[in-house]
Amino acid sequence: MNVKNLFLRLAPLEVVTGFMLAITALPSFAGVIYQVTDLLPWSENPSAHAQSINDLGQIVGFSDSIDPANQNQSTNVRNAVIWNWQQGSSTISPVNLGTLASANVSEDYYNFTSHIIINNRGQILGNRLDNPNQVQAILWENALATGTPLNGLGAVNNTGVGINNAGQVIGTNQTTSEVFIMQQDGTVSNPLGFGSTGLAINNAGQLLVKQDGKVYLLPDVDSIPVLSGKSITALNDLGEIAFINDGDSFILLADGSSVRLNVAQNQEAYALNNAGQVVGTQGSEGSIGIIWYRTTAGGWGDAVNLNDYAIFQSSPFNLNQAFGINSLGQIVGEASVNDEIHGFLATPTGTLNWGSLYGSWDNPSNWDSGLGFTPNALLPAIIQPTGNNIVVDGPATDTVIKSLELGGGTGTATLDLNAGNLTVLNQLNVYNNGTLNFSAAYLEANSILNQGNLNINNTGIHVIAGAVKNEGTVKVSDTTVQYTGDFTNNGAYISDPSTNQFNNLSVGVTGYLVGGTGDQFIVNGDFNNASTQNTLWNTANADLIFSGQAGTQHTMGLASADLGITNAIPLDNFAWGSMTLSSGNFLRLVDGNTTPGAALYAGRIILPDGLSQLNSINSNYDVYFDPTLLDNQYLLGSIRRFGAGSGQLLPWSLVPFGSDITGDTGLTTNQQNFAAALAEACTAPTGNLVTRCLQLQGLSPSQQRLAVASLTPDQVPGQMAGPIKFSATRMDAPFSRLASLRSGGGSVPLSINFNGIHMSTDQLSRALGINTTGGAAGDDNELFRDSPLGVFIQTRFNFGDLHNSSWDRGFNSQSYTATVGADYRINDQLVTGLAFNYTSSSAQYDESAGHMNSDTYMGAFYGSYFLPENFYVDWMANYGSNEYSFNRQYGYSGFNGQSNANPTGHQYSFVLSSGKDLSWQGWTIGPYLRLEYLGMHIGEYQEQGGNGFDMTTGAQTNHSFISNLGTQISYPFSTAWGVITPAVRVEWEHQYLNDNRSINMRLSQAAQGLGNFIIQTGNPDRDYINLGGSVSATLPGGGAGFIRYETRLGQSNISDHILEVGVRMSF
User: Fold this and answer.
1) Which domain holds residue 673?
2) Exposed/middle/buried for residue 874 (C-beta within 10 Å: 0-12, 13-18, 19+)
3) Separation of alpha carbons 956 and 882, rounded Å
4) Which end of the chain has a smaller Cβ tally under 10 Å, C or N?
5) Do 727 and 697 fall into the same domain?
6) How far apart are CA 649 and CA 657, in angstroms?
7) What's the maximum distance between 2 C-alpha atoms anywhere in the chain?
8) Residue 555 CB partners (closer than 8 Å, separation 6+)
9) Same domain for 561 and 615
């Protein structure tokens, strides 16, 4: 800010014949030259004087109506003017702001009108003579506004000397000799009182004032002795002050020390910027504009003649005096042009090259210009070392530069932006051996190209404005970064962990993103992903968030291949930890690269508006999520579709449950086996099993356990339970027939033996003390004595219950058996015969789990051999087929289903029985031992139902071998219509085989090799008791009949009951 002596020093008129059209003959150390612009006078005024320039290139000054050689200001009319700089312009015409002084004004006040200043807000402060003896401070809010008088401290005789970027004005009431401060809102204060004068104000709010010959830099209350009696000319924002003493120029530093600038006489400093550049004039008549630059030693170098570094567009042209300099190093003042005085603007051009021999960025001599420039909006900056590796500190304060190139030399170049914000007006390039460490709050460029390393860190939010193209590596560590322009990534982008917010994000074929837990990639616009770097891409634990105002439309290019449903998150397939679509936003998914197919895999799908927000998605491609996460449970239960397109929202794994279910000890072994197989099958399901897996995923853990219990096909072991555990298909009738024949003693044709109760008619008669030829039973003894052929019919009803156990699904069963047989007595010791048996069985499984019906057709060969002493040996061999109608029912919350099958099988058995019949006083006691082997087979079958839970059951084979050791006791009673014989029987049965079986099963709609499991049957009860009773009747004519009931004791989980009815006829 220029606060030079209010006496305007005009340069003498002289013609400068030497001018510069190129940079030839410049000193070898110069890296910057000045492009000079001619600031023309207003209208027909012969002179123009530029006084102040802001950082926007707006220049203010005045234009006089008299010849500059004529010092008679009484005839002069002075106008305030503004020039607006445009890069490349060689001349600029001014805009008239109004009259500052008219003719015939007071000479005492005339020089005040030469003081005119502009701040970065475009506000202009000047002084106007309203009458010959009165001066008035004037403020223009902008170049188009009318100047407004400032009445400092209520007076009208005021002068303004300074205005900062906050609009604060400092001046002096000339009437009362008081300094005044006027705020932007118009309030006025007096910091010192009478006898004070305002000198300057800076952007830090410091006030340079003088009172009673002492100088103060408020708010510091101590005076500055070194400035007393000195001519003070400038104050910068660092608190540094330029002053003149006896023809010598000095800088008073903030620490209180002072540095002498000039080594020659007649060099005066008029203006000082924050970079320490000082401008002024040299010569007794002010004939040469000069600049001093700061050195690395903390001082200033020799003054430089600006004319030696200037490019003029016309000649003759000489820069006489420099009155102002802005933060960018642009200098204004007055020049001699063809015998006229014009204003000039000297704009630095060229490139500031950083060399590895200098210090940090904010040291002005880092730059090879030799003029003390720091990077600014006018000058391209290059940090490109040769040989040595260098590290440069960024600016301590906010800085604007024209362009920046980092790296590209033979050594590595690192720039640390960790304090001041940096704005690059044009291109910022980081080459392959360059590193830009950004930890400040703000970095802006028209465009940024990174081919090296861009590291972003430190706490707080870091903003990068402008288009960014990354072809190297960007690493963001423990922070938040916002990109306000479009970001194109063709290299590596690594977040560790941080929040990364993009406007539009595009990833090219060679680009990839890396992020882990805690990393967020927020996209406010579109996310176009054409990457093919699936092995380098790693965002499987990072969060992708589409954010914006309600109604925002997003497009996402998909790079993932559609791998379908897998059993875990697909590796190397561009997966995300989560994807969020903000409330009210819309998302369109498109194919992003050349990989066949497209899909999106994201661990979590976050829809703040719930499932209804799926209507805001448009996709022909599937989106897959992790079904095991609790936060995704609202997505489970069925296939979800989007508002538009053919795509679906699916779990990437249809495994409905994990080890918490498959290993739940509250489930049976069979249920655990099935649960594991179902979980495996759901990794690659087909058909309706896909829907079933989805439904199961949507259940709560407790509901899943109930579902497993219902779905486990533990009904299957019951297919062999009837013949083996309940003896439902056992052919007892032939043994009853043989018992009756034995009772006949080989000579009496009519005898009865129902279920081991046997008695001849002679024995009955003797027991009753009657004649065998009398009574209802003996009339036909002789008729049947010679008939060796016998035919019998026997029926049986068997019913029982199998209770739920850890191996079997409980059921209640009924079976109906009819047996028809015929035998032939070969001699008195040997009888053989054939029999046919039909059994119809049905079972109703507990808990409405289905039912089973079976039809058994058996054929038997049987016989008996009578031994002496009433011993006998009976035998039987049979074979038959089983036809099943099997129905399995199951369900869970939201679903009920059933599967049907018609398996077939066969069975065969061998029975050997031996015993002895004893008679005592009418009682018959018959101890016996029976051995029975049973073999069963059911072929492989597949259920049908079409609901996804159909099973394929492997072939089943089972073997049973039992022994029965028992006895029976009977006693006959004779009646008028026949002989009635009640009997009881008790036997101990032992099972030697029927061991635990493993039934191989498979979910039919699982992929090949998956969904296999086994159902185990468990080991049987080995020992138990059969207890029964019967009543038989021998009727006249050789007929007989019986009814028998039997139950079982001592067998866990089983209750068994037999009701048997039989008749016999002899021929």
Assistant:
1) 669-711
2) buried
3) 13
4) C
5) no
6) 19
7) 182
8) 526, 527, 528, 587, 588, 589, 590
9) yes
Task: Please list, in sequence order, all residues whose beta carbon lies within 8 angstroms of the beta carbon of residue 748, skipping any fewer than 6 positions away.
Answer: 760, 761, 762, 781, 785
Return the bridge partners of 427, or none.
Answer: 447
pLDDT on residue 31: 64
pLDDT at 432 over 90: yes
Mean pLDDT score of the chain: 85
Q: What is the pLDDT of residues 824-859, one digit of tens each?
A: 988 888 999 999 999 999 999 998 999 999 999 999
- pLDDT tens-digit profile of 336-389? 988 889 999 999 888 887 765 544 454 444 556 566 677 778 888 888 877 778
Taking only the tens place, the pLDDT of each residue in 96-121 is: 999 998 766 666 677 888 899 999 99
If one counts every other C-beta atom within 10 angstroms of the C-beta of residue 869, the result is 6
Q: Going by C-beta distance under 8 Å and a sequence separation of 6 or more, which residues neighbour residue 21?
A: 311, 312
Q: Is residue 210 part of a domain?
A: no
Taking alpha carbons only, the member of 385, 392, 384 closest to residue 360 is 392
- For residue 973, give Cα distances in angstroms to 225, 977, 979: 151, 11, 5
Q: Are 498 and 479 in contact (CB under 8 A)?
A: yes
Helical (H) or strand (E) element with 1045:
strand 1040-1049
Q: For the domain that residue 911 is a member of, what is the CATH number?
A: 2.40.128.130
CA distance 292 to 279: 6
HSE-up of residue 1005 (Cα within 13 Å, Cβ side): 19
> What's the confidence (pLDDT) of residue 694?
87
CA 775 to chain centre: 98
Q: What CA–CA distances, in Å, run from 385 to 278, 356, 364, 422, 817?
A: 29, 6, 17, 21, 105
Query: Both tokens of residue 83?
Result: 């020039």
* The two three-digit tokens of residue 171, written as one number: 């001046």
HSE-up of 973 (CA within 13 Å, CB side)? 7
Q: How many CB atoms lie within 10 A of CB 184?
A: 11
In a domain, 1056, yes or no: yes
Residues 597, 673, single domain; the answer is no
User: Does the structure show a pLDDT above 50 at 25?
Assistant: no
Looking at the fold, whether 511 and 637 belong to one and the same domain comes out as yes
Tokens representing residue 590 in the block: 């498109």
pLDDT given at position 638: 83
DSSP 955-983: -EEEEEEEEEEEEEEE--EEETTEEEEEE
